[in-house]
Design goal:
With 95 residues, this protein is of the alpha+beta class. It has one helix and six strands; from the N terminus they run βββββαβ. The relative contact order is 0.25. InterPro entries: NADH_UbQ_FeS_4_mit-like, NDUFS4-like_sf.
C-alpha cells in the first residue's frame, strides 16, 4: 500500500467543519524515523511523508492514485448523528 485516502475529522478544539470537506491522500512512510546522532531530532529520509494532497471528492483522489500507479486504501468517514432537541429539554427533570 503506497497511499491512504481519508476525510479528516473535525478538530476537538474548534466548532467549525471546514477542513472536513476535502479528501486527503497521504503517502505511507517508506522508512522508519530515527533520531539524529548530532542534534537528537527525530527524522527520516522519506520526503513523501511531508506531502499531503487535498482533493474535493473521493473519486478525484482515487483517480490521482490510479493515474500515478499508487496502491491505496480508503478510510470512510463516520457519519455525524444529529439528534434534534428543543431548548425546553434542558429543563426536564429526570429521576
Amino acid at each position: 500500500m503506497d497511499a491512504r485516502i481519508y476525510q479528516p475529522a473535525k478538530p476537538a478544539t474548534q466548532s467549525g467543519r471546514f477542513k472536513t470537506k476535502f479528501w486527503i491522500v497521504e503517502h505511507e512512510p517508506k522508512c522508519r524515523q530515527e533520531p539524529d546522532r548530532l542534534i537528537g531530532w527525530i527524522g527520516s529520509d522519506d520526503t513523501e511523508k511531508q506531502v499531503i494532497l487535498r482533493f474535493p471528492t473521493k473519486e478525484a483522489a482515487i483517480a490521482y492514485c490510479e493515474k500515478h500507479g499508487l496502491s491505496y486504501s480508503i478510510a470512510e468517514p463516520h457519519q455525524r448523528i444529529v439528534r434534534p432537541k428543543s431548548y425546553a429539554d434542558n429543563f426536564i427533570r429526570r429521576v
